[in-house]
From TrEMBL:
One GO cellular component, as annotated: mitochondrial inner membrane
Cellular location(s): Mitochondrion inner membrane
Listed name of the protein: Cytochrome c oxidase subunit NDUFA4
InterPro entries listed in its UniProt record: B12D (IPR010530)
Keywords: Electron transport, Membrane, Mitochondrion, Mitochondrion inner membrane, Respiratory chain, Transmembrane, Transmembrane helix, Transport
Sequence intervals crossing the membrane: 15-39
Entry membrane topology: Single-pass membrane protein
Family membership: Belongs to the complex IV NDUFA4 subunit family.
Lineage of the organism: Eukaryota, Metazoa, Chordata, Craniata, Vertebrata
């Protein structure tokens, strides 16, 4: 399949940017899914040792990928501990 892609790229040089952008988009999507699977508190891979990891997050923990106007270091906890 790689040989076919390089053959098409040699014949039609205008397709090279298309291959680059599609490859970059696919790689970015795969990396973002990997980030969500490993660092999202809603995903639980180990049910025995930590069945509810979202309960152990403090108010200062940033769990969003990007936050626009929130400074997590200055937040205080509201409510009771469970």
């Amino acid at each position: 399949m790689l040989r076919q892609l390089t053959g098409q790229a040699k014949k039609h040089a205008k397709l090279i940017p298309l291959f680059v952008f599609i490859g970059t988009g696919g790689t970015g999507a795969a990396l973002f899914l990997l980030h969500l699977a490993l660092f999202n508190p809603d995903v639980c891979w180990d049910r025995k040792n930590n069945p509810e990891p979202w309960n152990k997050l403090g108010p200062n923990d940033q769990y969003k990928f990007y936050s626009v106007n929130v400074d997590y270091s200055k937040l205080k906890k509201e409510g009771t501990d469970f």
